[in-house]
Amino acid sequence: MTKSDLIIRLSERFPQLVARDADFAVKVILDAMATTLSRSDRIEIRGFGSFALNYRPPRTGRNPKSGDKVEVPAKHVPHFKAGKDLRERVDGRSA
């Protein structure tokens, strides 16, 4: 599902919500999530999952085209961990 699919589905499910308002709501939520993660805070949505940052230390990589060694700097990457309810729904254990 893409962001535009989510906006369309929200406006279909809630007819009183115009597509423009659904678009605004989705953008506000995603911006809030990005801001929270950029502050190195954790996001937990009960029944869905949690978002956190994982640290990746610096390493030596290779350029796949030339084979030359390349230094890859340390970085933090977003990580999603599915909650129990979501895992069970995906596995088909409950409706």
Strands, helices and their partners?
Elements: H1 3-13, H2 19-38, E1 43-45, E2 49-56, E3 59-62, E4 69-72, E5 75-82, H3 84-91
Antiparallel strand pairs: 1-2, 2-5, 3-4
Describe this structure in words.
With 95 residues, the chain is an alpha+beta fold. Helices cover 41% and strands 28% of the residues. It has helices spanning 3-13, 19-38, 84-91; strands spanning 43-45, 49-56, 59-62, 69-72, 75-82. It has a 3-stranded antiparallel beta sheet with strand order 1-2-5. A two-stranded antiparallel ribbon has the order 3-4. The longest helix has 20 residues, at 19-38. It is elongated.
List descriptors.
5 strands; 95 residues; three-stranded antiparallel beta sheet; two-stranded antiparallel sheet; alpha+beta; 3 helices; 28% strand
Helical residues, percent: 40-55%
What is the alpha-carbon Rg in Å? 19 Å
Task: Catalogue the unreliable spans.
Answer: none
Total of helices: 3
How many extended strands? 5
Strand order of the largest sheet: 1-2-5
The biggest beta sheet is recorded as:
3 strands, antiparallel
Beta-strand residue percentage: 25-35%
What is the ordering of alpha helices and beta strands? HHEEEEEH
